[in-house]
Each structure stands twice: as C-alpha cells, then as structure tokens.
C-alpha cells in the first residue's frame, strides 16, 4: 500500500512539473517582449465616426481612413510573423528613435494629430467658402535630434525665446539662425502646466545655425460651423489629414462627392492643401482592399509607386488615384463617372 501511495505521489509531482513547464513556456510566448514590433494592415474606419459636423449633408458612400496595426514583439507574435506574409517584424530601433521613449512618440503623435486636424478644418472651410478665424497659437517641441544639447523635452510648449514673446514658429527659427554656433539660447516653456526655463546650445549644420529641435503648432479655429473631432487616444499622427479634409468638406457642401462609393486613402495635409507622403502605405492599401474599398487615394511620388506595384502584382480590383493636392481630389470626385 505504501508503494502504491508513493508511486501516486511521484506521478502527481511528475505531472505537475509538466504542467508548470507548460505554464512557464506559455508565459514566455505571450508576455515576454523582444525589441521588435509586428506591423500589419488594419481595418478601415469610417470618418463619420470620428468627425461630427453639425447640420451636415448626408452622403450615400463613405470616406475612410486606414491605419497600420501594431502588435508587441512577443515570442509568439514573432513566430506567427515568420509564417504570415502579411505580418512584418520591425526592429524597435527602426520604430522609436534611440534617444526617445514610447511616451515621447505618443506625445508627438498626439500633437501632430491636432495640428493635422487644424489644417484639415481650415482647408475644408476655405474650399467651402465658410469664414473662420485662427487664434491662441501654441508651439511645441515634437522632436529633439541626437545632436541637440538641451534640457528641452518633447511636449514642451514654447512661450518665449531669449525674452522674446513667440507669436509663430518662424520667429523661433529666424532668431536661432541669426545666432552664431555654441550660443546658449534660453527658453521660457510650459511643462506639465508649470512655467519653467530651459536652455539649448546652438550648432552649425550645413551653414545653418540650429538647436536640433522640430516644432509642432496647434491653434484654435473659430467658425459658426460646428465641427467636433472624436479620434481615440490610440489614434495619432498626421497621416489621416487628407481624408479628414475630404470628410469635413463633403459634410459642408451639397454635392455628395462619395458618389455612393466606399472611398479610402491616406496622406498628410498642410494649410495650403498640399498632400504629403506617409509611412506604411502597403499596410494601409491592404486594409482598404480587405474592406472592399472602391477607390484608394494615395500621395503622388514614392507612395503611389509602391502602391501601384502592389496592385499590379496582385491584380487587386481597386481604383488607385495619385494626388498631390486637395483640389486634385475634389476635381477627380466631381468629374467621377461610374
């Protein structure tokens, strides 16, 4: 009897070991993150769910933004990426700058989204001949180069530079370029709702005096036409700017530019209505194709060339439209004929 009991205890311990090993392996596969991200195509998002325009005109079709889906580089995800042609393993250093944190990247993305929405709104209002005013301009640090020698941080709002009250970002650029290299520039900033003082040392780059900072601007746009943005906290960056402009404009004018179609696209927008290139076009195109979009707008140049290769190689049934400006897109949709 004692031997049977002993054998049973041994069996339970042995089985438990296997169970514990399995749990440890699953924990490693699911939770331990390696210095990679997994990128793939996301779904389309109807911009009517992100932008509310009061008393807007109805549309039979839709304008949609596309995005890059990003997953953590766990062991399991990396194994899946090895066998899934639509998943790409990207080194962390190629996604996040060496001198930055994920928090820095998120702050920059949030500022760029707000800046993009500002530009989209002003372009759409201008094209629809609806008056507006701009005020309360705020200028932020959105990137600091490795060469920068400063205690400025991403997200700092710049109020003064060397005692000069700042009214636009050009004032900062012109002031710094007027200085010689190795000059200490003093900044009055707002950080975490507190006023602070920071410094930066200038350096020479190709004959220009710089501090190694990139700036972003946010302003209040006032108009009688009520427009509200409802982007989610994990949606950021400027790449939906062009499609956002289309959605707002289509809500303001009588003619339905969707022509009853499911329209997707990508590209930045600036205050003059120019459309700029973006990253991850192949994922955004695939997202549009998976969601059965009829048209995909893509910035002219490298983005269009890459998208065209993918469409032709796979014989995708989607109309690819290259655009440089918002006006080109409006003209294309106005003249569109099935």
Structure report:
- With 338 residues, this protein is α+β, with helices and mostly antiparallel strands.
- The protein is 35% helix and 32% strand.
- Strands 5, 6, 7, 8, 9, 10 and 13 form a 7-stranded antiparallel β-sheet that branches. Strands 4-1-3-15-18-19 form a 6-stranded mixed β-sheet, sandwiched between helices. Strands 2-14 form a two-stranded antiparallel sheet.
- A hairpin with a 5-residue loop joins strand 16 (268-269) and strand 17 (275-276).
- Helix 3 packs parallel to helix 5.
- The N and C termini lie far apart (86 Å).
- The model has no long low-confidence stretch (mean pLDDT 90).
Task: Give a brief rundown of this model.
The chain has helices spanning 2-31, 75-83, 102-127, 169-177, 241-252, 281-290, 302-314, 326-334; strands at residues 33-46, 51-53, 62-74, 88-91, 133-144, 149-150, 157-161, 164-165, 184-191, 194-201, 203-205, 208-210, 213-222, 227-229, 262-265, 268-269, 275-276, 295-299, 319-323.
Kindly name the structural category: alpha+beta
What gyration radius follows from the Cα positions, in whole Å? 26 Å
Distance between the termini: 86 Å
The averaged pLDDT comes out at: 90
So what's the oligomer here?
single chain
Helical stretch tally = 8
| Approximate strand percentage | 25-35%
| SSE order | HEEEHEHEEEEHEEEEEEHEEEHEHEH
Structure summary, number of beta strands: 19
User: Which sheet architecture does the biggest sheet show?
Assistant: 7 strands, antiparallel
Portion of residues within helices:
25-40%
| Low-pLDDT ranges | none
Judging from the principal axes of the Cα atoms, what is the shape?
globular
């Amino acid at each position: 009897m004692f031997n049977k009991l002993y054998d049973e205890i041994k069996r339970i311990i042995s089985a438990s070991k296997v169970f514990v090993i399995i749990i440890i392996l699953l924990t490693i596969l699911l939770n331990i993150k390696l210095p990679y991200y997994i990128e793939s195509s996301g779904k389309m998002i109807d911009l009517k769910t992100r932008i509310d325009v009061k008393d807007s005109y109805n549309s039979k079709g839709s304008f949609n933004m596309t995005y890059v889906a990003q997953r953590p580089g766990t062991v399991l995800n990396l194994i899946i990426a090895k066998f899934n042609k639509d998943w790409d393993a990207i080194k962390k250093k190629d996604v996040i700058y060496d001198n930055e944190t994920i928090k820095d990247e998120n702050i920059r993305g949030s500022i760029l989204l707000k800046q993009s929405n500002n530009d989209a709104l002003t372009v759409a209002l201008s094209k629809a001949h609806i008056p507006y005013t701009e005020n309360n301009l705020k200028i932020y640090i959105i990137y600091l180069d490795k060469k920068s020698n400063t205690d400025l941080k991403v997200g700092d709002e710049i109020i003064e530079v060397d005692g000069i009250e700042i009214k636009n970002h050009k004032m900062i650029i012109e002031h710094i370029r007027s200085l010689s290299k190795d000059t200490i520039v003093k900044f009055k900033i707002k950080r975490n709702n507190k006023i602070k003082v920071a410094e930066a040392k200038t350096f020479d780059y190709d004959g220009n005096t710089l501090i190694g900072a990139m700036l972003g601007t946010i302003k209040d746009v006032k108009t009688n036409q009520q427009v509200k943005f409802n982007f989610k906290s994990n949606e950021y960056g400027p790449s939906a700017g062009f499609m956002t402009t289309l959605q707002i404009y289509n809500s303001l004018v009588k003619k339905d530019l969707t022509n009853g179609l499911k329209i997707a696209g990508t590209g930045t927008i600036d205050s003059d209505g120019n459309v700029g290139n973006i990253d991850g076009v192949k994922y955004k195109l695939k997202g549009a194709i998976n969601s059965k979009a009829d048209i995909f707008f893509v910035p002219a140049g490298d983005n269009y060339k890459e998208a065209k290769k993918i469409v032709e190689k796979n014989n995708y049934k989607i109309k690819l439209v290259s655009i440089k400006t918002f006006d080109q897109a409006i003209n294309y949709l106005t003249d569109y004929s099935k």
